[in-house]
Amino acid sequence: MVRLFSLAACLVAASSAFAAEPVTAPAPVGTRVADFTRTDLVAGTPWSLSDAGRDRKPTVVVFLATSCPVSNAVVPKLAGMAKRLQGEATFVGVYAHPSDSADDAAKHAAANKLPFAAVHDADGSLAKRFRVDRVPTAFVLDGGLNVRYMGRVDDQDAPGVHRPNPTTRDLGNALDAVIDGRAVTLSFAAPAGCKLLADAAAPVATAVTYHNEVSRILQAKCQGCHRPGEAAPFALMNFKDAKSWAGMMREVVADDVMPPWHADAKPGHFRNDRRLSAADKATLLAWLDAGCPEGDIAKSPPSKDYTQGWRLPRVPDLIVKMSKPIDVPAQFMMGAIGMPYVYVKGDADFAEDTWVTGLEVRPEFREAIHHVIVYLIPPGKTLKELVKDDGFSRHLLGAYVPGDEANVYGPGLAKLIPKGSVLLFEVHYTPNGKAGRDQSYIGLMTTKTPPAREVKSDAAMTKRFAIPPGDGNYSPKVAVLTFDKPVTLLNMTPHMHVRGKAFRYELVTPDGQREVILNVPKYDFNWQTGYAFKEPRKLPAGSRLECTAWYDNSKANPSNPDPTKRVTWGNQTWEEMMIGFVEYVENSGQ
Question: What is the mean pLDDT of residues 197-201?
Answer without folding.
Answer: 64
